[in-house]
Q: What sequence folds into this?
């Protein structure tokens, strides 16, 4: 997993509330093994049923293509727990998603895949959204996980908090397996203390 320390670039302002994982990556893109995950990201929000682009949608505007930061409304990522929603978002170029009350399954899947999810208060989300919309994708913002800060144009600044375990995992680029292997010496020492039981089994001393 790629470590996350900081990202800098345009912020995609997408204030819609209650966006579910089927909107983030429609099921049609899960059935086709050759489907482009980046194309599938917000496919039915970005394009009409006939496949033509909706030019007014931020995801179809040139200044936001490949932008690393996505700023969303409340309850983003609700619905099913499909991990593909994070994969599609990553394929589009997003490495950090911020919003008010991100859906729990979605937030956890972000941590497991090297994407930084930032939980904002309602007021912080509103303030950042106003600045991001005014910037229009033309001015950069920086998200720094080490300092747990966001900075941007016109002196914009806010602080955020990430649980220590998840913060360390992101900074070091560790998934669940990687986190477990950090304790390999203790695991091996514990196993070495086990005494053989009957018929070659191993029995734990209690």
A:
């Amino acid at each position: 997993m790629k470590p996350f320390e900081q990202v800098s670039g345009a912020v995609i302002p997408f204030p819609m509330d209650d966006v579910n994982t089927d909107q983030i990556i429609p099921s049609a893109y899960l059935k086709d093994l050759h489907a482009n995950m980046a194309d599938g990201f917000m496919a039915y929000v970005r394009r009409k049923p006939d496949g033509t682009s909706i030019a007014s949608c931020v995801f179809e505007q040139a200044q936001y293509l490949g932008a690393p930061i996505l700023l969303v409304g409340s309850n983003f990522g609700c619905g099913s727990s499909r991990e593909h929603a994070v994969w599609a978002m990553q394929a589009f170029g997003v490495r950090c998603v911020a919003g008010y009350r991100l859906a729990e399954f979605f937030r956890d899947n972000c941590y497991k895949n090297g994407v930084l999810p930032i939980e904002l208060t309602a007021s912080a989300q509103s303030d950042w959204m106003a600045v991001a919309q005014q910037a229009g994708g033309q001015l950069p913002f920086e998200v720094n996980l080490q300092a747990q800060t966001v900075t941007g144009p016109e002196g914009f600044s806010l602080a955020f908090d990430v649980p220590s375990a998840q913060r360390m995992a992101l900074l070091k680029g560790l998934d669940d397996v990687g986190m477990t292997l950090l304790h390999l010496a203790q695991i091996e020492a514990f196993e070495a203390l086990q005494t053989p039981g009957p018929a070659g089994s191993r029995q734990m001393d209690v």
